[in-house]
Design goal:
The protein is 42% helix and 16% strand. It is globular. By secondary structure, the chain is of the alpha/beta class. The chain binds pyridoxal-5'-phosphate.
């Protein structure tokens, strides 16, 4: 049995986007609102955390430990899950402690997470190990959640989301979304196999690393398949992702990110985020303009959340410029 705790408001709604469809003159656009999963302002990580926290509770853990960027949505949702489940939370955040505690970081503190700042991704691993060792020494039981919640257990969240989509009776030709640590995409691919989904799953990459993203996805999908006692293994050549929109690097705003955030807000009243969904939307808009999709196709933009980062620098100022 795979352990799970209920944390998200599911199923999340699927809504048409008629105004953007008309504006862009391309395929029919829809949106799946995983920004509305609810817990601690919501987002895609909550689906993964239902399984990761379920595993933590099964192991009698008392503290969730994870890592990410200062404006990490993942860390914010782990902190909220810990609060809801009566666990403690310690976060290792890469970046300098900002002058003002804004956006996701503000929410981390409100959830009473203990935050450790580290200067680089290199020192992050050693700091994580030190945090876990210190907790063990204090007689606590830490549970380490990987970066982005992306491991075989976390993959269950989006495998299950594909079953949810099938139950909603919606069968798009394309699913387009922001992909980063790969757990969301791997889960969608595993779930697509399980549900005989016939559409295509296209991730828009938001960061430059890792270079060999395909092997990251392969390990995650196959790890998830093993956990489900499935003998199926994914064909690494079948992954669809674009590396055309990550050139500025992770979290560095580029014009297409800003246009993505602005058009969704202005034409559909949908709030995207600057780092992930804005970038994916900018990519989607560019692909539509280039005629990548057929006009009669249905494209589902899977909103993965992240809006709290809008209310933090440098994004707030850049989006107003
Ligand atoms: C983490 C995150 C993603 C990417 O999900 P992965 O599973 O890490 O690929 C996309 N959008 C938002 C808002 C996120 O926080």
């Amino acid at each position: 049995m795979i352990n799970r705790v209920q944390l998200a408001n599911l199923p999340t709604p699927i809504e048409p986007m008629p105004n953007l469809t008309r504006l862009l003159g391309g395929p029919e656009l829809f949106i799946k609102r995983d920004d509305l999963t609810g817990l601690g302002i919501g987002g895609n990580k909550t689906r993964k955390i239902e399984y990761l926290a379920g595993d933590a509770l099964a192991q009698d853990a008392d503290t969730l430990v994870t890592a990410g960027a200062v404006q990490s949505n993942h860390c914010r949702q782990v902190a909220a899950a810990a609060a809801k489940l009566g666990l403690r939370c310690e976060l290792v955040l890469t970046g300098e402690k900002p002058k003002h505690t804004q956006g996701n970081l503000l929410l981390d503190f409100l959830s009473d997470a203990k935050v450790h700042f580290v200067s680089s991704r290199e020192t992050r691993e050693s700091t994580l190990e030190a945090v876990v060792a210190a907790l063990n020494q204090q007689g606590r039981k830490p549970y380490l959640i990987p970066y982005g919640g992306s491991n075989a257990i976390g993959v269950m969240g989006y495998a299950n989301a594909m079953h949810e989509l099938q139950q909603q009776g919606f069968n798009p030709d394309w699913i387009v979304f922001a992909t980063s640590s790969g757990g969301t995409q791997a889960g969608l691919v595993l779930g697509a196999h399980e549900t005989n989904f016939t559409g295509k799953i296209l991730g828009i990459r938001v960061d430059l690393i890792p270079q060999d993203f395909s092997s990251v996805l392969t390990n995650l999908v196959n790890g998830g398949a093993v956990l489900c006692h499935s003998r199926w293994r994914v064909d690494p050549a079948s992954f669809l992702y674009s590396s055309d929109y990550n050139h500025a690097g992770y979290g560095v705003l580029q014009p297409s990110d800003i246009e993505g955030v602005r058009l969704f807000a202005r034409y559909e009243g949908v709030t995207l985020d600057p780092v992930y969904t804005g970038r994916a939307a900018g990519g989607l808009i560019d692909l539509i303009r280039k005629g990548f999709f057929k006009p009669n196709e249905k494209v589902l933009f899977w909103h993965t959340g992240g809006a709290p980062a809008l209310f933090a620098e440098p994004y707030q100022t850049a989006l107003l410029a």
